[in-house]
Amino acid sequence: MVAIPARTKPTYAVTSVDNALLLLQMLRDLGELRVKDAASELGISRSTVHRLMSMLVYRGFAVQNESRIYLPGPSVGVGPAASTGARELRALVRPHLDELREKSNDSAYFMVLTGRVVRFLLTSQSAQPLRGGDRHGFVVPAHTSAGGRAILSRLTCDELRELYRGPDLNDGIEL
Question: In terms of pTM, does the model score above 0.85?
């Protein structure tokens, strides 16, 4: 049996961070979350829960369905980038991404395929008023982003079938 060590609250606890992490745990454990229920559980206002959930949605840790219920997002449960050299790879890619941004006058992104999702590892953000924005750290289903579809297009039909095989695993994609 593994002993679980006792945890003590940090001396300089940051309440907003703690509440955001508690919301993540609730999403993980309950599978769905309503603002009023979360507010009641945490003893904070609905507006505070809404603001915290908005940030979790922004970073991909939560999504909101048509009934305004929050569900775990694509970033929940995703492990680290597959490459152990992700930091070095980002350093190598950065000047090329910046050059692409300068030439295209638009934001440029570096992403990798991890299973059926793409993970944005680097953003070179344009200064233009209408821009894509910083997507660093975002995780989205590969078939839902232009970059993800470009990566998927480089796979063979057999690789695609293997990637999307199994019941209800094709996410509505016709192969």
Answer: no
